[in-house]
């Protein structure tokens, strides 16, 4: 499984505006509406489900990565969005560092195995310090995609 199978250029946003976890989650979640992964009228409910999931167990990993995610019938197909925060945001990460790379997974109910596989694939990035650094410093979506071709 490759990350790029689930990520499209339209679901990548450089220089996120949000300053809090909730603002960032909403901003990244909006990327799913643009591609029809989530209907616009379901966006608020999807954001609520992501925030509820965050309350159970924060999704801040380490090395500046957070992976907020939800499995819900609101989602039409397993998809990934990526937002990059220049300053980083507190996602209660394992290393207490702010998260700069926000990989959000939107998964339909029936994709449990694929959802977990995608989570694992993104988690492996924390071992690729050079790749993380290049993605954080990327000025274009094309640069991000080049560096995600692992």
From TrEMBL:
<dbReference type="GO" id="GO:0016020">
    <property type="term" value="C:membrane"/>
</dbReference>
<keyword id="KW-0762">Sugar transport</keyword>
<feature type="domain" description="PTS EIIA type-2">
    <location>
        <begin position="5"/>
        <end position="150"/>
    </location>
</feature>
<dbReference type="GO" id="GO:0005737">
    <property type="term" value="C:cytoplasm"/>
</dbReference>
<dbReference type="GO" id="GO:0009401">
    <property type="term" value="P:phosphoenolpyruvate-dependent sugar phosphotransferase system"/>
</dbReference>
<keyword id="KW-0813">Transport</keyword>
<dbReference type="Pfam" id="PF00359">
    <property type="entry name" value="PTS_EIIA_2"/>
</dbReference>
<dbReference type="InterPro" id="IPR016152">
    <property type="entry name" value="PTrfase/Anion_transptr"/>
</dbReference>
<dbReference type="InterPro" id="IPR004715">
    <property type="entry name" value="PTS_IIA_fruc"/>
</dbReference>
<dbReference type="InterPro" id="IPR002178">
    <property type="entry name" value="PTS_EIIA_type-2_dom"/>
</dbReference>
<dbReference type="InterPro" id="IPR051541">
    <property type="entry name" value="PTS_SugarTrans_NitroReg"/>
</dbReference>
<keyword id="KW-0598">Phosphotransferase system</keyword>
<keyword id="KW-0597">Phosphoprotein</keyword>
<dbReference type="GO" id="GO:0008982">
    <property type="term" value="F:protein-N(PI)-phosphohistidine-sugar phosphotransferase activity"/>
</dbReference>
<keyword id="KW-0808">Transferase</keyword>
<protein>
    <submittedName>
        <fullName>PTS IIA-like nitrogen-regulatory protein PtsN</fullName>
    </submittedName>
</protein>
